[in-house]
Specification:
4 helices; 166 residues; alpha+beta; Alpha-D-Glucose-1,6-Bisphosphate, Chain A, domain 4
Length: 166
């Protein structure tokens, strides 16, 4: 069974500005450098019309992995994250994402919607975490959900700083 998650945040920018930022490869490079680890990489970045496809590899150092998870995962953890963002349609921007842990330990799937609210935008992310470790999967899924909440907060804070600096 998988564990569901949701995360919502207000972005202090118009929807078109959010989309333009996501369509800027330099934003992704800077986000990985600012929010991630030194081993993180931008593996693919494709603009097709107004659609955006991004693939990154994120490395979670062993020192940041909780003790419970280290019992089944010695060393660092590599995650390949893919995300797709649509063109702005009316007052909405939608996206989907997937992250896979190396070695088939788990998968995170999700979708997001960013909605215009005047001069600001509100993003809501929803998804599920599935960890494939017998007897410990549920506990590990809850750890991942907590990590995702912190990660999404840091990523949104970076988005806000990036937009404010432009």
């Amino acid at each position: 069974m998988a564990t569901r998650f949701s995360h919502s945040t207000r972005i202090g920018a118009r929807l078109e500005v959010v989309h333009a930022t996501l369509a800027d490869e330099a934003f992704w490079v800077d986000r990985l450098r600012t929010v991630g680890s030194p081993a993180d990489t931008l593996d693919d970045f494709v603009l097709s019309g107004d659609s955006i496809d991004v693939t990154v590899t994120q490395v979670i150092p062993e020192s940041e992995i909780p003790d419970l998870a280290r019992k089944v995962l010695p060393g660092e953890l590599s995650l390949v994250r893919t995300a797709n963002y649509s063109a702005v349609s009316g007052d909405r921007l939608t996206g989907s994402s997937r992250a896979e842990a190396a070695g088939g330990l788990g998968v995170i799937t999700g979708s997001g919607e960013t909605v215009a609210e005047g001069e600001e935008s509100v993003e809501t992310l929803e998804g599920q975490v599935k960890v494939s470790v017998p007897l410990m999967g549920g506990k590990l899924e809850k750890l991942v959900v907590g990590y995702l909440d912190e990660l999404f907060t840091a990523e949104h804070e970076h988005l806000g700083r990036w937009i404010a600096a432009r």
